[in-house]
């Protein structure tokens, strides 16, 4: 399945049905009076978040969502049928933006969450609605109201608990494969990972989702490499694992490069909880590992003991790293639940 995290679609709600101009016609009833029914309501276009999807690839080939018009009213005061809503199924974590691709209309972060993109038009009144004491036989009926239309952008931000960031070829995919059952492409060249990859990590009785995004390079915020567009997929993470290749001479420079790109991107990533990780330690001797861990700690402004030294190939240090990440994830989950509870209390009148 191809991965697509942004799509532009046109949505059009159904028009309301026209009201009916009709008069009662029965034997022996000379002046039956008006009996035209109202028109039906047009269908709306509704976005629904579902956990069964993880890409927006469907919208590459289906870029229009149009609801049907309401049925017109009929005689004998019969109201026209209202049209069904069109359901646009999107992955959980999808943001709905206006046509300017900046104004956020909705953020569908929970399974089953709904948002009405455009509302169907109301049906027109039949001539029964217009009768009065002075106008006993009105010969007019209302036209249905037009349905709303709007061009929107769908932008997917994956719901991961923990994100892997770093320069290309820093061992992120190797760690993902070692810590989970995911099988990303692994090779000894930069930009092996071209799209985000997800894996589920199990630690004792707990589990969390680990996201691997394509590597960042200097100038990524200006479009170099694959740019910073994929950083949106780690915005919702509770902790970032900052991977630094231990075989590099300048580990501090590699760390600073990624931190600068995070600062340029914004969205709170630069202040998010982070664990510095020195990878590929199986290729280092004890002295080299200690020296580079110390230099990385100085760059990250943390104690040398806070730098996790791992090897995705041998699995050394991976379990300890996942336990440290889980601790941060649990804190973030508790904070998220508290926020949701507060929102629910505010929503109750």
Helix content range: 10-25%
* Structural Rg: 29 Å
**Shape, per Cα inertia axes:** elongated
CATH architecture descriptor text of the largest domain: 3-Layer(aba) Sandwich
Structural class, please?
A: alpha/beta
Q: What's the CATH H-level superfamily name of the largest domain?
A: P-loop containing nucleotide triphosphate hydrolases
Describe the structure.
With 349 residues, the protein is of the alpha/beta class. It has two domains: 1-156, Distorted Sandwich (Spo0b-associated Gtp-binding Protein, Chain: A), CATH 2.70.210.12; 162-343, P-loop containing nucleotide triphosphate hydrolases (Rossmann fold), CATH 3.40.50. It is 19% helix and 22% strand. β5 (94-97) and β6 form a beta hairpin. α2 (251-265) packs parallel to α3. The longest helix is centred in the C-terminal third of the chain and has 30 residues, at 318-347.
Which features characterize this protein?
single chain, 22% strand, Spo0b-associated Gtp-binding Protein, Chain: A, elongated, Rossmann fold, alpha/beta, six-stranded mixed β-sheet, 349 residues, five-stranded mixed β-sheet, 2 domains
Give me a quick take on this structure.
The strands form three sheets. The chain has a six-stranded mixed β-sheet, sandwiched between helices. The protein is built from four helices and 14 strands.
Q: How are the SSEs ordered, and which strands pair?
A:
Blueprint: E1 6-12, E2 45-50, E3 64-66, E4 86-91, E5 94-97, E6 104-108, E7 114-118, E8 149-156, E9 162-166, H1 172-179, E10 197-203, E11 206-212, E12 239-245, H2 251-265, E13 274-279, H3 286-300, E14 308-309, H4 318-347
Parallel strand pairs: 1-3, 2-4, 9-11, 9-12, 12-13, 13-14
Antiparallel strand pairs: 1-8, 2-7, 5-6, 5-8, 10-11
Helix pairs in contact: 2-3
